[in-house]
Amino acid sequence: MAGEGSSGWSSLPSDLVHLISTKLPNLSDRICCRAVCKMWRSSISVSDPNPCLPWFLRCAVDENEEIPYYSLSSNKTYKIHCQQPRDTYFEGTAGGFILCCQVSWPDQSVFLFNPLNGLKISLPSPGYFGVVGVVSNPLLEDIVAVSGSVQGTGNIWAGIIRPGDQEPWVIRIWNIEFYFGTCVYYEGLYYVNEYNAHTWIEDATTGEIVSIILSPVSHLVSSQHMLVACGEILIIFKCNATGKLEDSVFDMYRLDEVRGDYQWVKIRGIGDRMLFLNRIGGFSLRDEELLGFKGNCIYFMEYDDLQSDCTVLLCRHDLENGTTEALPNFWGERGTWIVPRIG
Fold it and tell me: How many domains, the chain?
């Protein structure tokens, strides 16, 4: 092309190169484009606010101080060099950060870590905890809230801390068995659900009970997920009674508020949204933000009953036609979704 009079890729207008880069849903593709030439590097920002496709990260650092991650856009596995010890594990993610726990028994350190730019935010340790999920962006909201199981009790809990504070976590514990309960934090409120019992809505600052309503009733009990999806509180119940992937079934409910009264309303679909479920909770994105990916789908983990070594499948369920498929080339271990951010 250059021999026929073309001036080459580097002569494309800077604003056009930038516009093209915003249509790339994978952060890895943007980084590769920045390597084309100096002009492209100056025109393409890797910290643009437009969403990138989520990555699925393994829950621990491997022996080479690397974290494997699965890319939806390429259906392939890559690795990030982490420079964190092997005894570091994590599950919760938000705003490009992972909540890390480094255990050197009997001590434990807790910190937020961005695996792409190395930014680390130390946090006071709240004591040993189990499954966790970060539900707010510490850089945008200056608040971190987590929920999980308390050692020795199995109850669910949530904690709030402002990064940089040296005070202990402000922790709230509910006497609900973790398997039967779930919790999210959204705009100053805790939403706590006990399966087939009640849902509490509580002011996270004062502890005042805003409302108590009946929990959604579902016979699908293999897992439950409460999450904030584009400003709505959803509960997702998942079940697979036969062990066959194609028989995965979901019950979904949305929390509605009318004149201060709350109620759970069963829904059949999620429109243009995609849900990404972790072991607890998860998050959503809209298909208009991620070109080429269809909405009304749920991405989730499922144990492969055909394997005896607890192999994990990474799956996509299409709510429109009810089909479920396993994503190809996945490494088969448990992990957590993260929306990658460099800036």
Answer: 2
Q: What is the pLDDT of residues 210-265, one digit of tens each?
A: 999 999 988 766 788 899 898 899 999 988 777 778 888 899 999 998 877 899 99
pLDDT in tens, 112-154: 888 877 788 877 776 655 656 666 666 666 666 677 666 556 7
Q: What pLDDT, on the 0 to 100 scale, is given for residue 131?
A: 59
317 and 176 in a single domain? The answer is yes
Domain that residue 35 falls in: 1-50
Closest among 25, 71, 27 to 288, alpha carbons compared: 25
- Tell me, yes or no, whether 100 and 217 share the same domain: yes
**Within-domain flag for 218:** yes
Do 174 and 69 fall within a single domain? Answer: yes
**Rounded Cα distance, 252 and 236, in Å:** 5
Predicted local distance difference test score (pLDDT) of residue 3: 46
* 3-class secondary structure, 138: helix
Q: Within this chain, do residues 278 and 313 fall inside the same structural domain, yes or no?
A: yes
41 with 31: CB under 8 angstroms? no
d(CA 103, CA 9): 50
Q: Please tell me what DSSP assigns to residue 217.
A: P
Dig out the tokens for 242 from the structure. Answer: 């036969």
